[in-house]
Amino acid sequence: MSHNLLEGKRGIIFGALDENSIAWKVALKAKAEGASFILTNAPIALRMGGVQQLAQQCDTEVIPADATSVDDLDALFAQSEEKLGGKIDFLLHSIGMSPNIRKGRAYGDMNYDWFLKTLDISALSFHKMMQVAEKRDAMNEGGSIVALSYIAAQRSFTDYTDMAQAKAMLESIARSYGYRFGKSKKVRVNTVSQSPTKTTAGTGISGFNAFFDYADKMSPLGNASAEACADYVLTLFSDYTRMVTMQNLFHDGGFSSSGITEEIVEMLEKQAQAGQ
């Protein structure tokens, strides 16, 4: 059911790849809530996904842009403002990729050139996106910018490797740019730390299914779905959260605040009994 939460607002959504991605679900819900927006992703990603189908559903356009390229971002904002008929009210950064993870390199055997690529794609692109928006004066006053993060920015998780550093940088950039954008344009900048989610990127991490089940047992509300995350992101785009900024907001069913749960205790007790 629509509440016209984003009626009249204009935005750019980075990172929609396929129907499993959070950005895809954000786009569908934003459209239902009255927003108009441009979809964008790197040209190579657009060849792999079905984002043109999403664009048709949302009655919008796809503008290819490499988020690590300032020139591409500058052209993206210029075209978006022209096509949408004005400045931007919201931005979603849903971008992350690690060549080291994709190519199976262990944390103690990382390729450092690939590590720098991870940081550029997954975190520095967030700074570039906001810097271009600021220099172009592309954001409306009171706008909202959101990036998707993960609790590995604060804690160690096996096999998340250099993406943990990328997420930590992403959250730091949100705080620093949140202050700057808040002072100049009352624009909010936040990150959402989501539960492990069965997206194309998430399931590519070794041991994902086992950890997904573990996190579900550790969270009193269970894992937050991509659909629920999209709902939460929309509240951050809306006028109801105009005083929320520079925050890393956990959307994880309580995982981040749980020490241990009954489900985990029962599982461990069963394993111990089976081993006797």
Tell me what you see in this structure.
It holds the Pfam family adh_short_C2. It catalyses: a 2,3-saturated acyl-[ACP] + NAD(+) = a (2E)-enoyl-[ACP] + NADH + H(+). NAD(+) binds at residues 15, 21-22, 95, 167. The active site is at residues 150, 160. The protein is α/β, with parallel strands linked by helices and 276 residues long. The protein has ten helices and six strands; from the N terminus they run βαβαααβααβαβααβα. The protein has helices spanning 22-32, 43-48, 51-57, 70-84, 99-102, 112-135, 162-185, 208-218, 226-237, 262-275; strands at residues 10-14, 36-40, 88-93, 139-149, 188-194, 248-251. The protein has a six-stranded parallel beta sheet with strand order 2-1-3-4-5-6, with helices on both faces. Helix 4 (70-84) packs parallel to helix 6 (112-135) and helix 6 (112-135) runs parallel beside helix 7 (162-185). It is globular, with a radius of gyration of 19 Å.
